[in-house]
Design goal:
Strand content: 35-45%
Helix content: 10-25%
Number of strands: 19
Pfam families: N_BRCA1_IG (PF16158)
Number of domains: 3
Protein name: Nbr1 FW domain-containing protein
CATH architecture of the largest domain: Sandwich
Radius of gyration: 64 Å
CATH class of the largest domain: Mainly Beta
Shape: elongated
Distance between the termini: 178 Å
Order of helices and strands: HHEEEEEEEEEEEEEEEEEEE
Number of helices: 2
Oligomer: single chain
Largest sheet: 6 strands, mixed
Structural class: alpha+beta
Length: about 300
C-alpha cells in the first residue's frame, strides 16, 4: 500500500515538472498529449524499476567442493621387545643351603674344651667335590682347627655333613672362626652369588663346672693266681672349675657306692686308693661313672684275670 501511495505522488510531481518544461507556442491539445506521453513513459519505467526491486534475487548456492577424505595412517606403536634376561652361568665350585648341624651360633662351650662342629652343605656348583677337598681356615679365631679333608664325594645337587674338630680358647669370650672349602688345586670357595662368602663357627667360651676327663688307675694291670683276689683302684679326675664331683666305679657285674671329690680350682686330682675284689677268671672291665655334674661314663679299663 505504501508503495502505491509513493507511486501516485511521484506521478503528480512529475506531471507538474513536465508541464513546466513544455515549450510555449504549442496548442493546448498538443501540450496535453506531450504530458500524457511523458507520464506514461515515466510510469512504465518506474513500474519496471519497482518490479525489479520487488523481485527477490535468487541466490544459487555454490556447492563447496568436498575434499575427498584421505586415510591418514595412525601412529601405530612399534611393539617393544622385552629385554632378554642375562643368565649367569653357575660357577664350578659353590656352596648353598648352609646349615648348622651342631654348635649353632653362640653355643656355650667350656674353656679349653675340644668340640666338633658339623655343617650341612649342598653342592650348588657344576663340579663334584672329591674326598680330598679340604676345610681351610681363612680368618677370625682358628680355635686350633687343622686343615681337614672332607673325606667324601659330593656330586652337584647333593647334600653332605662336613665336620671340623676345634678347641675352645681358654679365656671366656665370644669367638668366631671363618672357613672355606678348597679344591685339590687350591681354589677356595664358599657360598653366595659368587661363592666368595666364608661359613663360620661362633661360640661363647664360658667356665662351667664339669668333669672333662676321668680314668681308672688299677694295680696290677693283669693277674694270674689264686682267687679271690683284691686289686687296688683309684681314679684321676679333671674338672673345668671349682666344685664337688660325685662318682662311682662300675664293673661288669657290680658297682661301688657313690664317692665325692672336692676341687678348689680347675685341674686334675687323684682319689684315695680303694679296693676291688674278683672271684673268678675272666676280663675285669671297670670304668668311672660321673654322677654329678656330668652324668657321664668314661673310658673302660680291661684287666685280664686268671684264677688257678
Amino acid at each position: 500500500m505504501k508503495r502505491v501511495y509513493t507511486l501516485i505522488t511521484s506521478i503528480v510531481v512529475l506531471s507538474i515538472l513536465i508541464s513546466g518544461c513544455i515549450p510555449s507556442g504549442n496548442s493546448e491539445a498538443e501540450n496535453l498529449n506531450i504530458v500524457q506521453t511523458s507520464v506514461a513513459e515515466t510510469i512504465t519505467a518506474m513500474q519496471a524499476t519497482s518490479l525489479a526491486a520487488a523481485t527477490p534475487t535468487q541466490v544459487i548456492p555454490t556447492e563447496t567442493p568436498t575434499t575427498a577424505a584421505t586415510n591418514t595412517p595412525e601412529n601405530t606403536p612399534i611393539p617393544t621387545q622385552a629385554p632378554t634376561a642375562t643368565v649367569t652361568p653357575r660357577p664350578a665350585f659353590l656352596i648353598s643351603n648352609v646349615q648348622d648341624v651342631s654348635y649353632p651360633d653362640n653355643t656355650a662351650v667350656t674353656a679349653g674344651k675340644e668340640f666338633t662342629k658339623t655343617w650341612r652343605f649342598t653342592n650348588a656348583g657344576t663340579s663334584t667335590w672329591t674326598s680330598d677337598f679340604k676345610i681351610v681356615f681363612v680368618s677370625g679365631n682358628q680355635m686350633s682347627a687343622a686343615t681337614t679333608a672332607i673325606g667324601q664325594t659330593v656330586a652337584p645337587g647333593q647334600t653332605a655333613d662336613i665336620s671340623l674338630v676345634l678347641t675352645a680358647p681358654t679365656a671366656t669370650d665370644t669367638y668366631t672362626g671363618y672357613f672355606m672349602l678348597q679344591s685339590p688345586n687350591g681354589a677356595r670357595f664358599g657360598f653366595g652369588d659368587d661363592g666368595n662368602s666364608a661359613f663360620w663357627v661362633k661360640v661363647k667360651v664360658e667356665t662351667f663346672f664339669e668333669v672333662t676327663g676321668a680314668k681308672v688307675n688299677i694295680k696290677p694291670k693283669t693277674y694270674t693266681g689264686s682267687c679271690p683276689y683284691t686289686f687296688t683302684v683309684s681314679a684321676t679326675i679333671t674338672v673345668s672349675a671349682p666344685g664337688t664331683v660325685t662318682y662311682k666305679y662300675v664293673a661288669t657285674n657290680k658297682e661301688s657306692d657313690l664317692k665325692t671329690l672336692v676341687f678348689s680350682e680347675a685341674g686334675s686330682k687323684t682319689t684315695d686308693e680303694g679296693t676291688w675284689t674278683v672271684t673268678s677268671s675272666g676280663d675285669l672291665e671297670i670304668h668311672i661313672y660321673i654322677d654329678k655334674p656330668n652324668n657321664q661314663a668314661f673310658t673302660v679299663v680291661t684287666v685280664p684275670v686268671t684264677c688257678n
